[in-house]
Amino acid sequence: MSDVRRRLMTRKSNIGETRLADSPAHGELRDGEVVLALDRFSLTTNNITYAAYGDAIGYWRVFPTGENDLGMMPVWGFADVAASRAPGVDVGARVFGYFPMADTLVVQAEKIRRGGFADASPWRKAVPDIYNRYVLCAADRHYSAALENSEALFRPLFITAYTAVDFLRENQFFGARRIVVSSASSKTAYGAAWCLADDDVTVMALTGARNRAFVEGLGVYDAVHGYEAVEGLETGMPTLYLDLAGDAALRRRLHARFGTDLTYDCLVGSTQSDSFTADDPALTGPKPVFFFAATCLDQHRTQGTLHAFYDRFLADQRAFFGRVVDPVSPWIHIVEHGGLEAARGVIRDLADGVSDPMEGAIVRIAR
Ligand SMILES: NC(=O)c1ccc[n+]([C@@H]2O[C@H](COP(=O)([O-])OP(=O)(O)OC[C@H]3O[C@@H](n4cnc5c(N)ncnc54)[C@H](OP(=O)(O)O)[C@@H]3O)[C@@H](O)[C@H]2O)c1
């Protein structure tokens, strides 16, 4: 079945609920406009968090639907330039970037360089620059067609893990000797643990019962515990909390357990929450500090260190991909789902928290 001119919208009040509908017609292309035909995209809990923070951070505004109660949940993926009235952006070029779940996206290309371009559409100003840039694959010396699935799945997550570890390292881990990581089965969490392999800190995983065997099997954490074990965790060691779960009750329990040993609370993810809960009057110890990868990248751009950062990041990311999809003992299996209709079940499972961490979900748009 063809997905041509279809879009998959999300009910804002119930993120697991989606509606497949025709996309509105765009009309004649104007100067500078480019039509991107989405080919493949990834789905992970990160996308669910975009939707959960759709109003708070502005993700609902990035790809407007014209409907109040339905939004376009953003995804990361690869597309082909299907039509172009932007000199320097050629029909047939392959791009990587941020998309709505729709067969096509029309962008207003600006800042066109050899390596890529940005969408100047005014509604995209709702989010940091990084979300509005499209990488031209032909100019990316690290691009490999064979790694597109890994790239779509992990790039936004690994860059978060990587920049978060950079940030913690630059701050000497805030004096901690141990890092406790929640939602340790998430790709962002184990990406961070992989980055920390050679640092002089122990990395302890916290995860749910159903994901514990998976997390143990990764071998990147020095110890793995279930959430129920928090009150029995060893104390007496300076400890940093790397929070991917965003669960306020879990945070309170950890703060109470570690007391003055807790040196820093780094809030990165919200796999188990759909509201900002950093301001919690019942919380003892350090106030959680939100870490936003996009801000880090914007800082690199401002400081003129972005190219150097990407050189280092892309080389390390290649090594990480090698480990994740290692043919002999892969951490995950990538499963391709055919078409937007098939994406609906994947989104439902992610929103319900019942996805298998062994499976990395890619959606291919049928043409
Ligand atoms: N701050 C930033 O710049 C930034 C950037 C990228 C991603 N993130 C955040 O990082 C987090 C992880 O994303 P990901 O894509 O890496 O996740 P993922 O690979 O899809 O992993 C999801 C894991 O989260 C937990 N989980 C998910 N939904 C749940 C639910 N409904 N109830 C209970 N547990 C649930 C489970 O882990 P456990 O059983 O181990 O808890 C699950 O295995 C997201 O919140 C994402 O937004 C933040």
Describe the structure.
With 367 residues, the protein is of the alpha/beta class. It has two domains: 6-141 and 332-364, Medium-chain alcohol dehydrogenases, catalytic domain (Quinone Oxidoreductase, Chain A, domain 1, Alpha-Beta Complex); 155-294, 3-Layer(aba) Sandwich (Rossmann fold). The chain has helices at 45-52, 148-170, 187-195, 212-218, 248-258, 293-303, 306-324, 339-352; strands at residues 6-11, 14-22, 33-43, 70-71, 75-84, 94-99, 104-113, 116-119, 133-136, 178-181, 202-207, 223-226, 239-243, 262-267, 289-290, 333-338, 359-364. It starts with 5 loop residues before the first strand and ends with a strand. The mean pLDDT is 95. Bound molecules: NADP nicotinamide-adenine-dinucleotide phosphate. The site of NADP nicotinamide-adenine-dinucleotide phosphate has 28 residues, from helix 1, helix 2 and helix 3.
Would you identify the regions where 5 or more consecutive residues have pLDDT less than 50?
Answer: none
What count of structural domains? 2
The amount of helix comes to 25-40%
CATH fold title of the largest domain? Quinone Oxidoreductase, Chain A, domain 1
Radius of gyration: 20 Å
Bound compounds, each kind once, are:
NADP nicotinamide-adenine-dinucleotide phosphate
Average pLDDT works out at 95
Give me the number of helical elements. 8
Multimerization state: single chain
Terminal CA distance reads 8 Å
Major sheet attributes: 6 strands, antiparallel, barrel
Structural class: alpha/beta
Pfam family, one: DUF2855
Protein name: DUF2855 family protein
InterPro entries: DUF2855
